[in-house]
Write a structure and sequence with these properties.
The chain is of the alpha+beta class and 92 residues long. It is 55% helix and 13% strand. The protein has helices spanning 20-38, 57-88; strands spanning 42-47, 51-56.
C-alpha cells in the first residue's frame, strides 16, 4: 500500500514552449522599422485619381503596413464567421 503513494517516475520540469509567433512578429516589426527609417524622402502620389499630393514615404509605408495588418487579422475572422453561418443554415 505504501508503494501506491510513491510516484513511479520523478516529475519532469515542463518544457517552456518557444513563442514563435511573437518572435516572428518582432522580427517583422524590426524589418519594417529598418525599411521605414531608410526611406524618409518626400514622394508624390495620387489617391483614386482625385487627389494629387506629396508626403514622406515612411508615412505611406506605415499606412500600407497597417492596412495589411488589419486585412490579415480580420479576413480569417470573417471567413470563419461565414463558414459557421453556412453551417447554421444547412448550406454545407
Amino acid at each position: 500500500m505504501a508503494d501506491r503513494n510513491k510516484p513511479s517516475s520523478p516529475p519532469t520540469a515542463a518544457k517552456k514552449e518557444v513563442q514563435w509567433k511573437w518572435w516572428a512578429f518582432g522580427v517583422a516589426v524590426l524589418l519594417l522599422l529598418i525599411v521605414v527609417l531608410q526611406n524618409s524622402q518626400d514622394v508624390e502620389f495620387k489617391v483614386l485619381f482625385l487627389v494629387d499630393t506629396s508626403a514622406p514615404l515612411f508615412i505611406l509605408l506605415l499606412l500600407g503596413a497597417l492596412i495589411g495588418a488589419i486585412i490579415g487579422y480580420t479576413a480569417p475572422i470573417l471567413r470563419r464567421h461565414r463558414h459557421n453561418t453556412r453551417k447554421e443554415y444547412g448550406k454545407e
